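Need residues for this backbone.
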């Protein structure tokens, strides 16, 4: 390093260089690099390196402080992106005795003192009625929590799908209809995303144009939550391409779409089969008419190829307790062959399976809700 103090030009020209780079990245449609240079707060460590060749050459280190959400987005490719920006700066400036020797990304200090609480996934150390209230408000009492990722233009159709999923014991979250005007929209969506069991991506033609849908899918990927992609105008893309997409679905027939979703969850075991059975059993317990009971036997319970003795016992308890099930003669006609299949017996009537009143079956077989 030279003993006399040097005056450098690069620091005064740095902001103009970054502005030019942002325009170049925008024209190249390189949104990630544009995001970095626009949002990064630059600081320059001057004369980090020195070479006395040709009267002295100085290398400066550039640090870009990025907002947390941007830093998290680029963390896996951090080194290559740092190198790319350093190379691109070097292409632009024409100062012979100065250059950028290093580029570093760092995350800006968090301003939130309640980041644990704000995450939506904190498990309180002491009992908290609030978390239960949040969960009930978002999901109700259904057993499967399914997040419907959709474009706002299909809000009405998505809400119809939510209603079609309920008879399967599936609670569906639809952001644009499930959030009260007084709630903080983004925070409520985050609570749902970090408590969901599965995400369904409703891939309309404009799905990728949303500011939110790709981020919602990204949360599911990050949490290793199952993703069901439904082709409604476009094919799965990106990491969704690795998931099997459902074809043949139409917005006009959400009943069929809901059946396809339930069958896929069960067939591919995307959700634990015991959890799916509990959801189906809960729906059967809520039968509101004989016809409703028949529908749930034919379209929900019949999808299970096998049940454990404990699950059969739980099912028969629900059958006894709800009169809409017990007195649904057509429902009995559909339920009997299923019971025979699940148990390996050949009874002539569903009531032949009922446990005698004096039976002391273990509490492990009680209805799980």
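Answer:
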């Amino acid at each position: 390093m030279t003993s006399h103090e040097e005056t450098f030009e690069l620091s005064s020209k740095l902001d103009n260089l970054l502005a030019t780079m942002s325009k170049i990245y925008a024209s190249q449609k390189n949104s990630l690099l544009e995001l970095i240079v626009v949002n990064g707060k630059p600081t320059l460590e001057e004369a980090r390196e020195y070479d006395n060749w040709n009267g002295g050459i100085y290398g400066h280190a550039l640090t870009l402080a990025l907002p947390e959400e941007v830093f998290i987005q680029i963390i896996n490719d951090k080194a290559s992106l740092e190198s790319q920006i350093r190379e691109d700066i070097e292409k632009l400036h024409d100062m012979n005795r100065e250059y950028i020797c290093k580029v570093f990304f760092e995350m800006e200090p968090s301003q939130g003192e309640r980041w644990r609480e704000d995450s939506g996934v904190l498990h309180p150390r002491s009992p908290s009625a609030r978390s239960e209230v949040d969960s009930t408000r978002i999901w109700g009492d259904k057993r499967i929590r399914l997040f419907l990722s959709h474009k706002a233009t299909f809000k009405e159709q998505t809400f119809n799908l939510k209603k079609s999923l309920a008879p399967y014991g599936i609670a569906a979250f639809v952001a644009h209809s499930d959030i009260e005007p007084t709630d903080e929209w983004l925070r409520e969506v985050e609570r749902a995303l970090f408590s969901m069991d599965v995400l369904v991506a409703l891939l309309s033609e404009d799905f990728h144009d949303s500011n939110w849908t790709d981020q919602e899918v990204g949360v599911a990927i990050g949490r290793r939550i199952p993703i069901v992609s439904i082709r409604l105008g476009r094919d799965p893309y990106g990491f969704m391409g690795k998931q099997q997409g459902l074809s043949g679905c139409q917005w006009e027939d959400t009943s069929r779409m809901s059946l396809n979703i339930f069958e896929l969850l069960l067939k591919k075991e995307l959700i634990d089969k015991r959890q799916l059975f509990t959801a189906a059993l809960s729906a059967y317990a809520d039968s509101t008419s004989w016809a409703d009971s028949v529908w749930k036997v034919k379209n929900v319970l019949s999808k299970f190829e096998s049940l454990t003795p404990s699950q059969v016992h739980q099912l028969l308890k629900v059958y006894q307790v709800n009169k809409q099930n017990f007195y649904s003669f057509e429902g009995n006609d559909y339920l009997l062959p299923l019971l025979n299949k699940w148990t390996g017996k050949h009874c002539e009537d569903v009531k032949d399976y009922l446990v005698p009143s004096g039976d002391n079956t273990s509490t492990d077989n009680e209805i799980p809700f």
